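My current task is to audit a protein record that another person submitted. Alongside the sequence sits a line of tokens, each denoting a local backbone shape. Please read both lines and tell me whether the tokens look consistent with the sequence. Do not assume that whoever made the record got everything right. Thanks in advance; the entry in question is below.
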Amino acid sequence: MEPLRRQVSAIIDAILSETKPEEALVREQLRRHVANNPGQPEKALLNHLLSISTTVQDDTA
């Protein structure tokens, strides 16, 4: 599990280090998922992706 955790942490770090203003809400949502899942970055990213997927589906319906 450790290699996966490192990869997921790198993905999260890359997303959070972005500075595009139009992506600020996405970064804030991801920070919230990370805070709600301490020590479990893979769960945080999964929850984040699922919540975004739901949002995208709602917007296209």
